[in-house]
Specification:
The chain has about 475 residues and is α/β, with parallel strands linked by helices. It has 14 helices and 22 strands. Helix 6 links the parallel strand 8 and strand 9. The longest helix is centred in the N-terminal third of the chain and has 21 residues. It is globular. The structure holds adenosine-5'-diphosphate. The site of adenosine-5'-diphosphate (ADP) has 16 residues, from helix 7 and helix 8.
Length: about 475
């Protein structure tokens, strides 16, 4: 084991100081693989958040004056710090979150890649000089840092979801108050240490753990916070959108999904199975882009199912820190109960368990990787985000039918389809109402491309050149009387 003690802070970061909650209250953090308490973090509330926002505002006043180049250099230091400590940061992540160490290392690496991407992008956030309709005027369009950002993040990617927010925030010249998920606070607090190491000024990054309602409430009501970026459930996202109205904050929201994965008769079955395993079982099914519904065309249904069963049964379930583990525990006992409820409903409505369908023999928070065939549209798991290792398989007949069924949800985050027909690939691009579409690919997230959902899956993009826009204000300035 690497030594992650330097990164595992039991304190919050406000204005460059590592502090406790005002009343000394703490929250215990558990390892989901063992149930052991691994440490305690402060239970902060509105008062500490108010001070963190004030500190971020003070820091913003000087940080906004730095050049894009200066910020780019600090971001590159931040990238290097992450990669230099990839192993220990990944072990800390697995210890609090449960995912296999290989996935945790991948998460640290993609987080570092986001930071590097924004270190590069910020030097190219050009303004414009627009042709003027009046001879003696010149019209300028310029971009400026938005101000203090509130960032609220989930537990399924406790490090990289923050990278997607800290990268553009710090690149743009904004400062930030972060509220990570309560069950996985350490990977977020580690970013405070990394930001200090990389040379960001005190107050640029503030991190608070504690009551979501109190910290979130202060972030949403405080007029100094100009932008809020959130990744989490659609339900909480909708609350934050409502709360943002009073002070008219800019918002970006990465919310839930209900991803279809469509396998057409002409698909390469082995490739489809490989993509299915990756997109369904990564992080034990606990990602917002995980497949929720497999639609398989009649002619390939049996072949796909047989191969998917073999691949699913080959997954090694265990403690993420053990060598070779591919499936870790679920995040908490409520997640296990949710899997049990969904399966009970699906079986009662005619589903056939092909493999799994119950808790794993390891007990605790481990659930067996599951396939349920003969899935139908009245099952609860058709409409709800499963967020766990259950793969429901639906049969379909025509392209037109499957597109309609795939789109029959309020969500619009990720969709996947396997086909060798190029014309069909373009029809899917046009007709699937999803922000992210993988054709013959089960994992498509990359820093170079804009990640974000349509419909009730969210607002705004993370990554790509689009990802920085939400952190910059556009100003138009007309300069007249130039005697040209
Ligand atoms: P998940 O199911 O991924 O945990 P949540 O939406 O419940 O999704 O949580 C995502 C983040 O939002 C967490 O940091 C959580 O503490 C925070 N959160 C939950 N409720 C609120 C709220 N009312 N206001 C602000 N933040 C909240």
């Amino acid at each position: 084991m690497a030594d992650y003690s330097r990164f595992m802070r039991q304190a919050n970061l406000i204005g460059g100081e590592w502090v406790s909650a005002d009343d000394g209250a703490t929250i215990a953090v558990e390892n989901p693989a063992t149930g052991e308490v691994i440490g305690h973090v402060p239970k902060c509330g509105a008062a500490e958040t108010y001070r963190a926002i004030a500190a971020a505002q003070r820091a913003f006043e000087s940080y906004r004056e730095t050049t894009a180049n200066e910020r780019s250099v600090m971001l590159r230091h931040l990238h290097d710090a992450l990669m230099d400590h990839q192993q220990s940061l990944a072990e800390l992540l697995t210890t609090e979150q449960g995912k296999p160490l290989a996935e945790a290392k991948g998460e640290i690496a993609i987080g570092a890649a986001y930071v590097l991407w924004y270190a590069e992008e910020i030097r190219r956030t050009y303004g414009e000089i627009v042709p003027s309709p009046v001879q003696d005027r010149r019209l300028l369009v310029t971009k400026h840092p938005t101000g203090v950002v509130g960032a609220i993040t989930p537990w399924n990617f406790p490090s990289s979801m923050l990278a997607r927010k800290l990268g553009p925030t710090l690149a743009a010249g904004c400062t930030v108050v972060v509220k990570p998920a309560t069950v996985t606070p350490y990977s977020a607090l580690a970013w405070g240490v990394l930001a200090e190491d990389a040379g960001f000024p005190a107050g640029a990054v503030n991190i608070l753990t504690g009551s979501a309602r109190e910290i979130g409430g202060e972030i949403m009501s405080n007029p100094l916070v100009k932008k809020v970026t959130f990744t989490g459930s659609t339900e909480v996202g909708k609350t934050l959108i409502r709360q943002s109205a009073d002070t008219v904050k800019k918002i970006s929201m990465e919310l839930g999904g209900n991803a279809p994965f469509i396998v057409f008769d002409d698909a390469d079955v082995d490739r489809a199975v490989e993509g299915a395993i990756a997109s369904k079982f990564r992080n034990s099914g606990q990602t917002c882009v995980c497949t929720n519904r497999f639609y398989v065309q009649e002619g390939i249904y049996d072949a796909f199912l047989a191969k998917l069963k073999a691949a699913t049964e080959a997954l090694k379930v265990g403690n993420g820190l053990e060598d070779g583990t591919q499936q870790g525990p679920l995040i908490d006992t409520a997640a296990i109960s949710k899997m049990e409820d969904l399966m009970k409903d699906a079986e009662a409505k005619g589903g056939r368990v092909v493999t799994g369908g119950k808790r794993h023999a390891l007990g605790g928070q481990f659930y067996a990787p599951t396939i349920i065939a003969e899935a139908n549209d009245i099952m609860q798991l058709t409409r709800e985000e499963i967020f766990g290792p259950i793969a429901p398989i639906f049969k379909f007949n025509t392209e037109e039918e499957v597109i309609a069924r795939a789109n029959d949800t309020e969500f619009g985050l990720a969709a996947y389809a396997y086909t060798q027909d190029l014309g069909r690939a373009f029809r899917l691009n046009e007709k699937l109402e999803y922000g992210l579409i993988g054709i013959n690919e089960g994992i498509i997230t990359t820093v170079e491309a804009p990640f974000g959902g349509l419909k009730e899956s969210g607002l705004g993009k993370e990554g790509g050149h689009q990802g920085i826009d939400d952190y910059l204000d556009t100003k138009y300035t007309a300069i007249g009387g130039l005697n040209l």
